[in-house]
Give the backbone structure.
Amino acid sequence: MRRPAALTRVTFWLYLGAALAAAWMGIPPLGARAAQSLHHDLAVRLDPASRELLVEDSIAVQGRDSVEFTLASRFAVERVLVDGAPVRVAPQPAQAGRNEWRVPLGQLRQAATVAVRYRGRLDPLPNADHREVLRGLPPMADPLGSFLPGGTGWYPEIGRTFFTYRLSLDLPDGQRGLVPGRLIDERSEDGRYRATFAFTRPAESIDLIAGPYRVRERIVRRKGGDRLRLRTYFHADLADLADDYLAAVDKYVALYSRWIGPYPFTEFSVVSGPLPTGFGMPTLTYMGARVLRLPFIRTSSLGHEILHNWWGNGVYADLDRGNWSEGLTAFMADYTYKEQEGPDAAREARLELLRDVAAIPPGQDTPLRRFTSRSHGTSRIVGYHKGTFVFLMLRDLLGAPVFDAGLRLFWRDRQFRTASWADLEGAFEEASGRKLDRFFDQWLSRSGAPRFRIERARVDRTASGHRVRITLGQDEPAFAATVPVVVTTPTGRTEFPLVVAGVRQEFVLDVSARPESVALDPDFRVLRHLDIAEMPPILRQVIVDPATVTIAATTAETVRSLAADLSRALLDYPHALSDAAMLPGGGPLLVIGLSADVDRFLARANLPGRPQRVVGRGTAQVWTAYQQNGKVLAVVSAESTDALRALLGPLPHYGRQSYLIFDAARAVERGVLPAPGREWRLSPPE
Ligand SMILES: [Zn+2]
């Protein structure tokens, strides 16, 4: 996390897919809300070339006898006024490069204004790679792009209180800038650009962005006649993307306005930045220029961030009682776009989500209710993937019209307020007229996922056709779920939704034609632990498992040290290398080495050998297989040390693949092996 734990804000780190997966983090707001009202009126003058910032903030407070705020110690406070009269105050050094200021108001005041003027110099842009940059952005300025993140002490911060604000921004001409909120005035005069914004909803922080932008605008008239201002603030070399982005924003805003309720703000802007980052805030998203060129941003991440204007920045998640906003947003954005592509893409997406769930190492799974924000890979799977499945199963249970009615009720009743899982449950109960406490309680409070299986199935002939007697089993303690079971006959497929509640249950399924096979949840509609036969092995399985052992199949020191580097780059939990002389124990394995050594090692350790499809191809080959004990084996085999070194950058981005062929650093072929499947073949009746 990039800010002290006591400070959070309504900013969502973008999901940047495989290319920048490490950059994804949801930091939604806290539930605490102060009764005292607070309003900032800021005049901000920024000179990106000299990095000088000059601010006058008039803070209107109510019901206080003093005002305490913190400000980054890089700023020199020039004066403090209480209701226009100068006061003398001295700062106390506080944590994290800040000073704390305490301005006494003399007595408990119904209303007072504290004005603070300060100036200081911001950081230059870092030239670090994105991982570095994401760890903690200070306020920084550059003619190429300035970014003053909220929560970094660039304006007076008063506890964890929500506030409203108005901000006038003054920049050299040629620069444009913005903060979240409604643009109420904008002009160029005297060689300066000036714009004023107002944010009238409860805000937790202010992010300020400026750059040498070309602004493109589209005004959308909404039902009821009010106007929605869509903008791109792009660097000149991105101008060709502006219209596509505006069209995409328009489409997403319309989709969710229809689905949930009117878009709750008056603007939405897509803003480019010089750093390879991505953030979502109310009314805008800020992304690196390189990121904006990635095709999946427009087709997926952008919609996800826009939807956060409803879930997260419109209704706030109550972190103390769990963050529902990421799961709901992932379901209504990322997963929904797959459904829009078609049934095959949606099924593929469900399989991917479930295989990530299956990859959670034993003991690391937590109940969805305990998810607050993403801090590592496993919590993302819980918060986003399991969350997606809970909403998918709920929609299957209630039917889409009732589910959607529940969403709209939730929005109507909770907008700009804090809400918990219980509030969501209440909205769906109201919409459906049924009790959902057992559904929510089970899927939110239990960790892990059920392992449903067909234990027995046999066919009898009946007077009118055939009957399949099927026994479904699962481990103790049993989950309750509706599990689709599909019987295939020569004339087609029949689906039976079976209501399962115990560890072993028999069901009778009548079909007219002779049944050939029966399959449990073949379309992956239930949150469950997949059987190994349903999952082709992929790299991710070794990546996320803390038990993964890396073996350097070599005696050469250079190869060994490259193998150690690669293991650290790839694995979430890298350990010291194991030696090729040691035969592997019982866990997941990552074997790294030069081709001949790798083949020798696999043969000696009695592990699956090099698959035919990668033999002799490219400068390096990567593949996965199951060991006899069902654990995954991943192999990285290169023809030379240079070829091995070339994988350090790219390989960590290919977790979803079963095999890859590299030509130096370029993946020239990759893929997922087909799963063997898990059908129960039925013999004909006796
Ligand atoms: Zn999100």
Q: What stands out?
A: The mean pLDDT is 89. Residues 13 and 25 are 5 Å apart (CA to CA). DSSP finds 14 helices and 35 strands in the chain. The pocket of zinc ion is lined by residues 12, 26, 304, 308, 326, 329 (CB under 6 Å).
